[in-house]
Amino acid sequence: MIPYRKDLKAVTRDLRKNMTDAEKLLWSEIRSKQLKDFNKLGLRVKRYSDREVLKNINDVLEDIYKLL
């Protein structure tokens, strides 16, 4: 498990408050699908470009579901 870093709290808060349109869309879709197991995954990093999310949200979501 990655140790908590208190010094990053302000940075992560700012990132959540200032999401790009692609990030807002992706999180909205994930929340609407109610991925109950999402939090059980632990930390995995998968990167998608803003363009990929905005143009191919269904493909991005399908890729995420495969990781579950």
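Above is the first protein from milestone M3; the second protein from the same milestone is given next.
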Amino acid sequence: MSESKSRKTGERRIRSLLSQFMRAFLDDEGGQGVIEYILLLSVTVVGAGLLARGILKALDGGVLKLGGQLEKDLKTGRAPLSVYQN
């Protein structure tokens, strides 16, 4: 068998297998469960992203406040009395 002929036979075989796979996939109702899991995962990822954004914003504000206080203390050479209290 020539190389060109065997290549065409292989391509037809691959197309046939892909066609069978797609038909089976579309007929299978188990795909609905996969879609539900994907939607659930996407909602979870978006929620986690929004939560992380809020936490980072709060941390950023706290760090900026701390940095401002530290800068003030370093410029004046003294810290407020509350720093020394336990």
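Note on the second protein: DSSP finds two helices and no strands in the chain.
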